[in-house]
Design goal:
alpha+beta, 6 helices
């Protein structure tokens, strides 16, 4: 016999959205239980017996959890929908109930983006506490010296505080530009671009190569592949879900 749970947890577990996004849906009055709109985050319901709807659509039945790696091209919004009508990454993804991007990847940044209908893992992956490493290949203006790159490794001050230490490797030059590989453990908005701008070498082109142990290698631009069971287990381990299985 099931027991009442917080409404946002039910939505996330059903793959509607991440738990944080589910809270926004509740506050916006888009969720109802047994015909009554619910706007309180502390509200509970029993998914086995209560009629739960989002925007008038009944909550989907328990969906198998799926996990994908997508090679995002530039020119796509990392969102399920966009009120301005711009292309979203969902146009490139398989049609799975509740599927959504894990975190963000800028409109003008390409590379690895994870997608899942596992709201609990999404919440953990985007929580700053866990610091899942993300590696990028950046083409930047000019030729930063090792002394300048050391500032990125040590952490530098941005408008929203100091960055954590980063792993930085110079890959060579291309005319009056340079390629640099950087690994960060944070997820601030446009962080890599702001870090390079802060050292006087703005980003010209940016591509995310990996998230945790998941790599973009072998995925065509605009294509996707399911994560392996081992990759899912490793992501859950990195976010404190060691007991979780795909």
């Amino acid at each position: 016999m099931s027991s009442p749970q917080r409404l946002q947890k039910i939505l996330a577990s059903a793959g509607v959205a991440s738990r944080r996004r589910s809270e926004e849906l509740i506050l916006a009055g888009r969720v109802s239980v047994n015909g009554q709109v619910v706007r309180e985050l502390g509200a509970k319901a029993d998914p086995a017996h209560d009629a739960i709807e989002v925007d008038g659509t009944p909550l989907p039945s328990q969906t198998d959890k799926v996990y994908y790696a997508l090679n995002k091209p530039t020119g796509y919004i990392t969102s399920v929908t966009d009120p301005k009508g711009r292309r979203t990454v969902m146009a490139l993804a398989p049609e799975v109930p509740g599927l959504h991007p894990v975190g963000r990847l800028d409109y003008d940044t390409s590379g690895l983006l994870l997608l899942t209908n596992d709201g609990d893992l999404t919440l953990a992956m985007t929580h700053p506490r866990y610091g899942v490493p993300k590696t990028y290949d950046a083409l930047v203006e000019g030729h930063p010296t090792e002394r300048i790159l050391q500032r990125l490794r040590d952490g530098l001050r941005l408008e929203d505080g100091y960055t954590a230490s980063a792993k930085v490797v110079a890959l060579g030059t291309e005319g009056d530009q340079s390629r640099v590989r950087i690994t960060i453990h944070e997820g601030r908005n446009r962080q890599v671009r702001r870090m390079f701008a802060a050292i006087g070498h703005p980003v010209v082109r940016l591509k995310r190569l990996s998230v945790g142990t998941v790599s973009i290698e072998g995925i065509a631009l605009g294509g996707y592949r399911p994560l392996t069971p081992q990759e899912v287990v490793e992501l859950k381990q990195q976010t404190g879900h060691e007991e979780g299985q795909p």
